[in-house]
Amino acid sequence: MLFQLAMFPTSKGTASVSADVAKVIDIIDKSGLPYRLTAMSTIIEGDWEPVMKVINRARLMLRRRHSRVYIVLTIDDRKGARNRLTGKIKSVEKKLRREVNK
């Protein structure tokens, strides 16, 4: 499964939330789950229980520090699929017959 996650506090009152996002990424990174950080979201690959446990850990960390947390979660659940974090990109590159900007 692929989980696309954006999570940040909205109660901070400043334009930048990168310090809080860095704390969320630290939790994801330390989980050992495969992930990719992008400018707008983070994509995590794994099974439901371990990924949701990590997402909840990050949510609770932000809630301890802030009164409001915004979370957007999109899930791609494809039966039997593995290594989709890189496999989906390789599939597109194969069809284009070239590498794309990653």
Written description of the protein model:
It is globular and about 45 Å long. It is built from three helices and four strands. It has helices at residues 18-31, 48-65, 84-96, and strands spanning 2-9, 35-37, 42-45, 69-76. Helix 1 (18-31) packs antiparallel against helix 2 (48-65). By secondary structure, the chain is of the alpha+beta class. Strands 2-3-1-4 form a four-stranded antiparallel sheet. The longest helix is centred in the middle third of the chain and has 18 residues, at 48-65. The two termini are 20 Å apart. Helix content is 44%, strand content 23%. It has a single domain, classed as 2-Layer Sandwich (Alpha-Beta Plaits), CATH 3.30.70.930.
Question: What's the Cα radius of gyration?
Answer: 15 Å
Give, in order, the helices and strands.
Answer: EHEEHEH
Low-pLDDT residue intervals, each spanning 5 or more residues: none
CATH class: Alpha Beta
Number of strands: 4
Our count of helices gives 3
Helix % is: 40-55%
Strand content: 15-25%
CATH structural fold name: Alpha-Beta Plaits
Distance between the termini: 20 Å
In short:
The chain has 102 residues and is an alpha+beta fold.
